[in-house]
Amino acid sequence: MYSSLTLLKKYFQYLLKASNGKGHGVHSPFVYTFIREVLNKKADHTLIPSIENRRAQLLANNAGIQVWDRGAGSRQTASDQRSIRSIAKAALKPKKYSQLLHKIIAYYKPEQILEMGTSLGITTCYLATANPIARIVTMEGAPSVAEIAKDTFKEIGLHNIEIMEGDFEKSLPQYLTTIHSVGVAYVDGNHKYLPTIQYFESLVKQSNDDSVLIFDDIHWSAEMEQAWEEIKNHEAVTLTIDLFFIGLVFVRNAQKEKEHFIIRY
Q: Please, are residues 16 and 260 in contact by the beta-carbon 8 Å criterion?
């Protein structure tokens, strides 16, 4: 993991390189539409206040749980006693990015949504509310954390979520046998080079023009930046969007030349 100072420097470099967040000067119609219809839209759902209330509850909960993590990699320690509050502070995506994922789902309306890294279930709720008729599968390596996520889904009143517990190396192949193609997949499970590449290679094999692969924390460490560069250069990838904290990957067969965008968000 990069130090806070290094991350700050990288973020300023990103701001200098990034295209205008309103779409000015972006010549790709596909990306321009994404900016206007996703990035610049407001997340709107009646359950958003309830989701944010649940986030506040988790951030204030000092109860301790035993964490045995088998899938979240850098996000949690392998096995220790931690407070729910500390897990929430370390693992929950900021509201801005949880709502961005909601907007992506609401715009593309995929039939299949996969989240690798449930954590306490806040982002999962944003994914699930964006398209209630979709099949939502979320994977979590720590059983004690998964139980809290289930409580989150129950409290918000969401019933279209399936949670798979256990090692991602087993859960992902099992999941892929149940679908014809990937809809939207959000990978937030193991912030290391090799697992990230392995997850990508499994997902991209079942991706098509309608698929969106989203990778979390692509500039979080040298390993993640290495993985992001390799993903961008993969022969099946035709377009990527770098939003610094997350990266989006598209496999668009109609697009003959690769394009990589850095967009301010």
A: no
